[in-house]
Amino acid sequence: MKKNIGATLALYPCPVIVVGAMVNEKPTWTLVAHAGTVAHAI
Q: Which DSSP category does 3 fall into?
C-alpha cells in the first residue's frame, strides 16, 4: 500500500565531477559532488 506524504524536500541524483591533477609527477583525484536542495519553495 502506498502512502501519500504530500509535498516534501527530497534528494535527487546529481552529477559528480572528477577533478584530477598531477602532483610530483603522480596523478591525484578528488570528487566534487552536490547533495541537497537549493532555492526550494513550496
A: -
Query: Letter for the amino acid at 10?
Result: A
Q: What's the half-sphere exposure (Cβ side, CA atoms, 13 Å) at 36?
A: 4
User: Mind listing the pLDDT tens digit of every residue in the chain (42 residues)?
Assistant: 888 888 777 666 677 888 999 999 999 999 887 655 566 665
Residue 31 is which amino acid? Answer: L
DSSP string, 10-31: ------EEEEEEEETTEEEEEE
In this prediction the pTM is 0.42
